[in-house]
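Changelog-adjacent note: as of this version, every example in the card shows the full chain rather than a window. The one below runs 330 residues end to end.
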Amino acid sequence: MKQMSLNTTGFERKTKRTRKREFLDEMSLVVPWYELVALITLHVPTRSAKGGRPPFVVETMLRIHFLQQWFNLSDPAMEEALYDTALFREFVGLDIGEDHLPDESTILRFRHLLEANHLRVQILAAVNATLTAKGLLLKQGAVVDAALIAAPTSTKNSTGTRDPEMHQTKKGNQWYHGMKAHIGSDADSGLVHSVATTAANAHDVTQAHALLHGQETDVFADSGYRGVEKREEIQAQHPGVNWHIAMMPGKRKALDKDTPMGTVLEKLEQTKASIRAKVEHPFRVIKRQFGYVKVKYRGLAKNTANLVTLFALSNLWMVRKRLLNMGAQE
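Full-length structure tokens:
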């Protein structure tokens, strides 16, 4: 058997600041840990009088939970990663030589604690409150959009059926099976303030009212939201909003851009498109940066809770450089 090198003892001959370490160092600095820990601590059950192993610190479990989101890890995979990856243990503040490491059941119970007390929505609100206080999240304009999230189509599971809350829909010439994530984001920064989910076959416009926080004056959306201003729930809850809906692609293609009117309309569509483009950034972050391309759980409730956390973390990731610069200037 090959003798162990000093690599496992912390006396490395060479060091490299990897992208993963850079990412975790940045997120460790920009996440408002104090506010989030205080929020969760109120709901943590007290230790039993019978004693037993002391519970893990709330911040440690929250850091583990966020690692799951950033690296798309299941509960068992997260447990194994803590044993395998020294960088993860360093991030959560555990020493494998002195501390117990949480098993998958402990990680699962913490996730259930967040779900049972609806803390994911409060985490998003706390993050956005921090960003608003720093002037990074405005209130006047919003962009709404939706994206399909795939779900397993296999029936090789304990029930022998697909998830009944997931459905299929056709987009273009391709069929998709899963759910739809609806978000409302800030028109200036693209930061997400509202999240809703439906089965994939639900129309985008049905969730428009749930994606507004009530302080918007102007809302931008693609052509899938045509007629939104006529819906009863919009007229009842958001009567003063000015909706800027994209022109249908076929109608826009037919514009005569050689005429003054055609030129003006094309410029208007380009302006609306440039504003709407910012709502695509959060979807790109959770799908490409965090690797969330398929639902993790059965049912909309658990997947909605997961998405809310992902979008809260995507908000921090998108403005992390500005937050770090603000901290450096203070």
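Structural remarks: The longest helix spans residues 300-318.
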